[in-house]
Amino acid sequence: MYIKRRSGWEMPERLATPESVFLNRRALLGGVAGLAATSLVGVEGAFAAADPTSGLYPAARNEAYTLDRPLTAEKFSADYNNFYEFGTSKTVLPAANALKTRPWTLKIDGLVEKPFEIGIDDLVRKMTLEERLYRHRCVEAWSMSVPWTGFPLSKLVALAKPASGAKYLRMETFMDKSMAPGQRSFLYPWPYVEGLTMEEANNDLAFIATGIYGKPLANQFGAPIRLAVPWKYGFKSVKSIVKLSFVAERPKTFWEGLQASEYGFWANVNPAVSHPRWSQASERVLGTDQRVPTLIYNGYGEQVAGLYKGLENERLFV
Ligand SMILES: Nc1nc2c(c(=O)[nH]1)N[C@H]1C(S)=C(S)[C@@H](COP(=O)(O)O)O[C@H]1N2
Ligand SMILES: [Mo]
Hints:
molybdenum, metal ion binding, binds ligand MTE, Protein-methionine-sulfoxide reductase catalytic subunit MsrP, five-stranded mixed sheet, 8 helices, molybdopterin cofactor binding, seven-stranded mixed sheet, Sulfite Oxidase, Chain A, domain 2, alpha+beta, oxidoreductase, single chain, binds molybdenum atom, 12 strands
């Protein structure tokens, strides 16, 4: 196994993007109010990123969501990420410093009562933040367990007031080649798009994360707002969302566009259904040298198996 043990903050300053890494770390540690954008004039815009809602973290833990294994230490999960916008290696942390997360506007459109836009800080203040411990199982057969902070996706759906014709929720990541070098590659169908059925989106497990480890999301985790659907393979948990569209047709997702035979729309975790190129029976636990058996629906069958009654003809586990 290969886990890169050196975290961004252990990196000599000279190897990191000069101000950005340093200031980002200060902003995360500092409680932030003092680091408002105005105090950073001269840092060339990279830091409008101080988070005005950081005082809302850490949020109270919702004890209904428990784990059967220890939490993954931040030093492992924060430097082993999939975020193709910033490169295809697991070490995207330095590159993700270029992600500018303020101002950040979420657009709600499609089959809704009235399309609207909302700023991330207004949205976060409208919601009651809570912390949930969730497992995360990547299709590549590694896993982690992390404390997300955020709110149920169903609350955002309620805010959007979808029309009865809305059958799917389509979610889209930002598109900006100037920040995200990966998006300059023609090999990928940018922007990153994911989707859920309305029933899945309204399931209590579907969670919108704005924070992790008791702090606002660090960029590489998909700041400032990402999805966490722990019963599905990790690629469904789309990062850095800018648009939610309520639609009648099943959206074409990023990974389907790349390789539909290997990465489908449903992508529910199932140890008995192998990926065409590897087994899904077990998973490597980040930060340990252990492999553990993978569980059907990643252990969340009780909450979600019912969503798939009558859909047995679909490729539910790819
Ligand atoms: N926009 C976007 N979202 C994304 C990805 C990505 O490359 N781009 N990778 C996905 C994959 S494959 C996984 S496993 C998780 C990784 O989340 P983490 O880096 O926070 O562990 O994000 C998912 N969301
Ligand atoms: Mo993944």
